[in-house]
Specification:
44% helix, mainly alpha, 4 helices, two-stranded antiparallel sheet
Length: 113
Amino acid sequence: MPATGEIAEIRLGPIPAYVVTSPAVAHQLLVPGDRDYDRGRLMAKASAWLGDSLLTSAGANHQQQRRSLRSAFTPEQVEAHVRHVREATGRLVASWTAGTELAVDELPTRGAR
């Protein structure tokens, strides 16, 4: 997707959605400007299933949720998460056989442990 630019529009049925492919733009949207952006119809509908989560909330509630999660995203914590994801991904990829088709919906549970 980076070939489409820093922000790409995709369609989820009749609903336009946007994918940010640039870390700088993601930072601009999520860090200093999180109070300035409407989450849109998709997130309003998603809140029925996801509840008032960090992804779907806005304003003061979003700020409070971000503050409560901050300690999980220190550079040290992120590095630990990256290490675990790399190890799990390595185990998963090592379990694949060249030329074999994989069912995408089964991947999270196959060989990642």
